[in-house]
Amino acid sequence: MSQQNSQTIHTYNKSIEPYVNRDMTRSREGFYNDWLGDVFRDVPQNARILEIGSAHGRDARYLASKGYKVQVTDASGGFLDYLRQHGHSPLRLDIIAEAPEGKWDVVYASAVFLHFTDEDFSSALQNIHAALVKDGKLAFSVIERDGELTEDQQLGLPRYFRYFQADELRAKLERANFLVTDIRETIYKDKNWLYVMAEKKEK
């Protein structure tokens, strides 16, 4: 794990309540739920689904309302405690350092990889590839923009952000032996976002 990612996790551990209070007020209806519907359109309800960076568990609750059982995870001890207090059974997972145990049909990460350096992201893709079943699906979202920065405006403590362009993402995923099946763009939280779907290819 990079120093940047470690600092970001520390910030979340110190900011659980303000982050949850702020994030819970933002609607995920419309485009976002439509995208999730496309991600899971052909996924059977008994599929093994792993969410990376579940935070307060909103997406897992939404998918549960559609009949799916999601294994929630996080690298933040603060979010793990929050998830347990709200009825979940989370696993501690640092996807940069280790592959999750078992094999999974879908690995899903909303606004997680934007906190990863290039090296972190490459390591995470390698570990996700190892954890997916043959033709397993990876779905995630990142901010569309150039460069990187560390900011402390929203939570009062520093968080690292790495931004991406669609062509760059496609190339990184292909090098990691994923077949990109869809990249779509939208504006959410006043930012341009990329929503990505890919499938595992055998090496």
Describe what you observe in this structure.
The protein has a single domain, classed as Vaccinia Virus protein VP39 (Rossmann fold). It contains seven helices and nine strands; from the N terminus they run αααβαβαββαβββαββ. The strands form two sheets. Strands 3-2-1-4-5-9-8 form a seven-stranded mixed sheet, with helices on both faces. Strands 6-7 form a two-stranded antiparallel ribbon. It is globular.
Summarize the structure.
The protein has 203 residues and is an alpha/beta fold. It is 34% helix and 29% strand.
Reconstruct the topology from this structure.
Elements: H1 3-14, H2 16-23, H3 31-39, E1 49-51, H4 58-65, E2 70-74, H5 77-85, E3 91-92, E4 104-110, H6 118-131, E5 132-143, E6 148-151, E7 159-162, H7 166-175, E8 178-188, E9 191-200
Parallel strand pairs: 1-2, 1-4, 2-3, 4-5
Antiparallel strand pairs: 5-9, 6-7, 8-9
Helix fraction? 25-40%
DSSP strand (E) fraction?
25-35%
Q: What's the CATH architecture?
A: 3-Layer(aba) Sandwich
Alpha carbon gap, first and last residue: 25 Å
List keywords for this structure.
seven-stranded mixed beta sheet, Rossmann fold, 203 residues, single chain, two-stranded antiparallel ribbon, globular, alpha/beta
